[in-house]
Task: inverse folding
C-alpha cells in the first residue's frame, strides 16, 4: 500500500462566521443559487483522518436515493452529528465561494478530505452540479483532495465524476454491497469504496473476484494522513469500511440484504 506523508496542517478558523444568505429556489440548486453550507477545518482532530484539512457540507447536499440517509448514516450520531447540524442550519461554515478560497490556500501537495459528512453539491435532487464540482476540482489543483459520493451513477453524474477525477480531484463511488461495488467498478470512471459488516478486519473479494481491502483507519493501523489510498484515483483495490456508529446494525442489514438478493 502506498504511504503518503504530509506535514501537519496549520489550524485556521473557519467556523465563527455569520450564516450565509440562504437563497430559496424551486427545482433544485444551481451554480448561482446554492443553498448548501460548507465548513472547513485545517487540522482535523479526528483520530481516523489524522490532522489533515477536512470539510463538512450541509445535509441538504445528500442524494435522496442514499439507503443510509436517516437510516444508519454514521454522521447522524456522536459529536459529528452535532457539528453537522450546526453546518446544516448555517450556524457554522460559509458559502461555496469561500470554501474554494480556503482550498486554494492549502499548501501544495496537501492531502485533504472533502465531506466527512454531506455529499457533492446538487443541481437538482439526485443530480450533481457538474459546474460546481469542476470549480472544486480546479481549486484543488496542486493538492491531493479526495471525497466519496452516494449519488447514483446516472449518465450525467458519471460525466461529472469522471471529469473531476481527470482534473485531479478524487471522487470515490460509494457502494452499499459487494455486488454494487462490482457494478460501479465496471463503469471505469472512478475508484470504488464499499460498506462492510461490523468488525471485519481481513481483506475479502467481490462476487467478480475484485480485492477489497479494509480501511487501515478502521482497524486502528493507520490514518488518512499516513495512508492516502482513498486519494489514489488509479487504484485497482476497492476500499471497505466496516459499519460503525449508532446505526451500524441498519447499515449492516442493507449490506446483507443486497448480498442475498
Result:
Amino acid at each position: 500500500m502506498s504511504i503518503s506523508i504530509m506535514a501537519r496542517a496549520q489550524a485556521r478558523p473557519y467556523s465563527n462566521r455569520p450564516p450565509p444568505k440562504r437563497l430559496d429556489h424551486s427545482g433544485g440548486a444551481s451554480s448561482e443559487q446554492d443553498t448548501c453550507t460548507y465548513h472547513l477545518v485545517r487540522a482535523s482532530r479526528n483520530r481516523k483522518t489524522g490532522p489533515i484539512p477536512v470539510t463538512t457540507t450541509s445535509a441538504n447536499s445528500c442524494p435522496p436515493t442514499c439507503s443510509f440517509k436517516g437510516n444508519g448514516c454514521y454522521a447522524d450520531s456522536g459529536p459529528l452529528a452535532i457539528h453537522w447540524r450546526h453546518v446544516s442550519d448555517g450556524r457554522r461554515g460559509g458559502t461555496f465561494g469561500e470554501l474554494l478560497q480556503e482550498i486554494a490556500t492549502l499548501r501544495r501537495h496537501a492531502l485533504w478530505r472533502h465531506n466527512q459528512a454531506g455529499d457533492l453539491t446538487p443541481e437538482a435532487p439526485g443530480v450533481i452540479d457538474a459546474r460546481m464540482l469542476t470549480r472544486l476540482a480546479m481549486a484543488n489543483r496542486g493538492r491531493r483532495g479526495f471525497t466519496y459520493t452516494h449519488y447514483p451513477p446516472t449518465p450525467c453524474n458519471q460525466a461529472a465524476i469522471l471529469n473531476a477525477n481527470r482534473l485531479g480531484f478524487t471522487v470515490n463511488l460509494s457502494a452499499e454491497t459487494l455486488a454494487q461495488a462490482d457494478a460501479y467498478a465496471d463503469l471505469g470512471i472512478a475508484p470504488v469504496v464499499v460498506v462492510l459488516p461490523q468488525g471485519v478486519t481481513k481483506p475479502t473479494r467481490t462476487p467478480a473476484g475484485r480485492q477489497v481491502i479494509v480501511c487501515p483507519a478502521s482497524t486502528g493501523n493507520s490514518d488518512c494522513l499516513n495512508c492516502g489510498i482513498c486519494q489514489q484515483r488509479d487504484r485497482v483495490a476497492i476500499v471497505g469500511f466496516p459499519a460503525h456508529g449508532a446505526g451500524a446494525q441498519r447499515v449492516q442489514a442493507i449490506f446483507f440484504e443486497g448480498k442475498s438478493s
